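Our consortium's second objective concerns turning raw sequence data into structural hypotheses that experimental partners can test. To show how far this objective has progressed, the report includes one record in full. It was chosen at random from the queue rather than selected for favorable results. The single chain below, 147 residues long, was entered without modification.
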Amino acid sequence: MVTLVGTQARFTDALKDLLELEYDATETYTAAIDRLNDENYKAKLNEFKADHERHIEGIRNLLKASGEEFTDGPCGKQVLMIGKVAIANLIGDNSILKAMLAAEEDTNTAYERMLNHEDRPSSADDFIKNAREDERRHKKWLEEITA
């Protein structure tokens, strides 16, 4: 399943869905970290999870600046292709890392769309660009480690 985050007409609506995607990403990372055996992989995924947590704060700040209300945690929407329930059913570090790669493909797509969103205020540019670079870095590492 490919994410639809970033296809919303209003940038703030897209931000709200991006926030949900990021909440789901942190839950998915937690599930993956709990199931990995390799301590080096766990450490790297903890770094990536921290990036997603930082993204949550950045998105929340953008929404606050726009006067928009938002959720304080996941609302149960399944916006990532691989969620914590799916991770729970996987066995082996490589399978888990491949699942995380699929999830990172969705976040990469979402941030690309957000950066190109025609309703995007210029005040969001730095955050979106930096978050997109984080997501690219996550995806690249996962591609290399699972190759």
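The partners drew two points from this record. The longest helix spans residues 39-65. The mean pLDDT is 89. Both points have been shared with the crystallography group to help prioritize constructs.
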